Amino acid sequence: MSGLSMATSDGMAEITLNDGKVNALSQVMIEYLLAALDQAAQADCAVLIVGREGIFSAGYDRKVIDAGGPARDAMRAAGDRLTLALLDHPAPVVIASTGHCMAKAAFMLLLADYRLGADGAFTAGLNEVAIGMSMPPAAMELARERITPQWLSRCALQAESMDPAQALQAGFLDELAAPEQLLDKARSKLAELAALDRTAYRETRQRMNAPLRERILPLLTLS
After folding, report:
1. Contact (CB, 8 A) for 171 and 110
2. How far apart are CA 114 and CA 173, in angstroms?
3. Strand locations in the chain, DSSP E?
4. How many CB atoms lie within 10 A of CB 38?
5. How is 137-174 classified by DSSP, letter by letter?
6. What pLDDT is recorded for position 1?
7. Does the pTM exceed 0.90?
């Protein structure tokens, strides 16, 4: 089981992460997500990525991180390919964070065009330092680019967990919604963005992301 499903309609793709647990971004989960994004890109579909009720994702599979070795390196390389796939997607990308969102999953938020979060007793953050990981260079560049400056140290260095309102202030989210309204609002936002002139959107998105892409590309492991 991949823990992932995708449905497409009217030039929009909805990708749902749901492994019944914490939606850990294992190598298998990431590879399925990459395949879904590639399929959406080939069809020029705008993309909405959602989690399951109460959790978007806890980030990389912690057991693999703790074990180290080739499996960890392969998972992180897949994560680097995911970073590039989200940065380079040719159509709008919206993420609906349905609950808790940590580490690599929080970085996914920073790569989307529009991010909605469920308002409630949920946490988001970059916990790498708290679990004994130095922030990877490419991730640090992304954090520096996209996190509100006054929150950068608290998030990236101090590994501070945020509630949804703080995540909004820090730049991880653009909008909060009641959990029962989140999916409808995210679908509406995706349709709004998908209705914009696609050529203009794609070229402007590329130009907007180009400086960050140039800085992080040499830092990514893509094989």
Report:
1. yes
2. 8
3. 4-9, 12-17, 46-50, 54-57, 93-97, 99-102, 114-118, 124-125, 175-177
4. 12
5. HHHHHHHHHHS-HHHHIIIIIT---B-HHHHHHHTS-S
6. 47
7. yes
Buried b (16+ CB within 10 A) or exposed e, 119-154: beebbbbbbbeeeeeebbebbbebbeebbeeebbeb
The torsion region of residue 44 among left (phi > 0), alpha (psi -120 to 50) and beta comes to: left
What is the token pair recorded at 23?
Answer: 């939606």
Query: For 19-66, what is each residue's pLDDT tens digit?
Result: 999 999 999 999 999 999 999 999 999 999 999 999 999 999 999 999
Nearest to 106 by CA among 175, 158, 162, 34: 162
99-102 β-sheet, strand order = 54-57, 99-102, 124-125
Distance CA 133, CA 140 (A): 12
